[in-house]
Amino acid sequence: MALLEVRNLCIAVGSGGALLPVVEDVSFTVEAGRTLGIVGESGCGKSLTSLAIMGLLEGSQVRITGGEIRFAGRELTKLPAAERRAIMGDQMAMIFQEPMTSLNPVYRIGDQIVEVLRQHRSMSRRDALVRAAELLALVRIPGPAERLKSYPHQLSGGMRQRVMIAMAIACDPSLLIADEPTTALDVTVQAQILDLLADLQARTGMAVVLISHDLGVIAETCQTIAVMYRGRIVESASAAGLFAAPRHPYTSGLMASIPDADADCETLPAIAGRVPRIDERIGGCAFHPRCPRAASRCAIEPPATATYPEDHVVLCHFPEEAAP
Amino acid sequence: MNTLALFNPFSGRRLAFLGLVWLGFILICALAAPLLAPFDPLAIAPVDRLSEPGGSYWFGTDNFGRDTLSRCIYGARMALIIGLGTVAVSLTAGSLIGMLSAYFTRLGHVLMRVIDVLMAFPALLLALVLMTLLERSVANTIIVIGIVYTTTTARILFGMTLKLKNEVFVEAAVCSGAGHCSVLFRHILPNLISPLLVQASFIFAFAQLQAAALDFLGLGLPPEIPSWGNMLSESRIYVTRAPWLLIFPGILIIFSVFSMNLVGDALRDSIDPRFKDDIAGV
What we know:
The complex is a heterodimer.
Chain A (H helix, E strand, L loop, with lengths): L3 E12 L2 E13 L4 E5 L6 H9 L7 E10 L2 E2 L5 H7 L4 E4 L13 H12 L4 H14 L5 H4 L9 H12 L6 E5 L7 H18 L2 E6 L2 H7 L2 E6 L2 E7 H6 L4 H8 L39 H5 L4 E4 L3 E4 L9
Helix pairs in contact in A: 3-4, 4-6, 6-7
Chain B lengths: L1 H5 L7 H18 L1 H4 L31 H36 L1 H16 L2 H11 L4 H28 L2 H8 L4 H9 L4 H24 L11 H8 L8 H28 L11
């Protein structure tokens, strides 16, 4: 049985009585110890999906309108808040995009880690501090014992993201959701953080859901990849399969947009058009206004999924059949 | 960094420092009133009624022959009690209402509308209305003035909590399995301490004025209690014959409120550096 199983997840934003769908019919599974990458442009629903899994949509304008999220055999969307909180931070944890603001400015680093530990484990403050120092060492922060006494503003962005990771893995979660963990960091620090995540994963055997808009980051770290466009997964495959032969025109477009360091060009390649606003209604396939291969059928009829060998799934009327 | 700046909000601010000295002086008067006061503030001496300042009565006496200096010193005690009491009531109630309203949106719709209604009354009018419903006593005065300043505190904390609750570190706390109580009081509240401190200093000052006004109108503290406001109230009949009855408590009120405002300004500026350059050296 898969560790995390998302089935037909639908999320909508309530605005003035009307419900605007922002995530539609999203399904994926994550096996223990594996890494799933979710890629897509801003506003495609990838972050909302992760927030839904963590149960952070509660009390906001955004609601889960359908589908199920099964984690270790339990249906999360129907779990009472208290039981859900017992899982959050313990068996599943999350790291965020903004390391500069994701630590509480008024607490020392050590106290924040201790807080998480004591929320889920009955341990004394002293034991928790010892464990916190171990965790800081684990995320390769030099001088962990002294760093426990630092305030967040005394640390750099990369250091803070390491502290966030330390807090996330404090209780040995079996699932870690990383929502754009490296986007706000320098490229060199990015590589270090990704390295660290891979290392921790190998050590603890946790599953990781890595959310990013950066195909390069995803390619380096994930075994399976789901590409999202406008609230739907338009293509999912193994990393090797996807990069060898992208079958959805959107995926090919994304890959073509990666600037080539060797090529000498005036303009950067990009997908034509823009991401539609969420209140725009688009009939048929949501990508057809920007799709180079759109036919009249694409504007009328929503595409069905086409399945290829090695679990390569595409949501398109005219998927690319052979490797380009 | 806020806490660091707080250590010395008075460097380069001579006036604010003088304010702090004055408040220290008032504090000593309040704490050591029985030692400092030359007479019993309630002792009546009909022979010496309305004596001018001088001799054994440095500040003169009132229409019952009570020593004005002693009453002023004991008045400091009342000022402190009223100030601290009001701060305690309004900060506790105000921060609870503000934080809960911002955190639980539906509850907020109800609570903040009640606060809006209360804020529509002029502060003194609201205090007068509430005071007429209650008996004159120290506790009731504190509660009524406390309610008046609960509204502003709740408003301020409502806004700040709304902003804080969307911060990533709060989301991260929720994510790590923290319950509502833990999020509100362990993750949000500590970030509100600095603005609460500033708010406290201003409420402390305004409570003095409000209490004096209530006393003057005969609706505040019971008349037998020596407070600066009561002394002003009693002095008004004799203002031409015995102006010292008005001058001494009046000066005490003005200096104290002014000092508290200066200290409050200094605290606020040290927390919010945007104001610093405009009035540096004041």
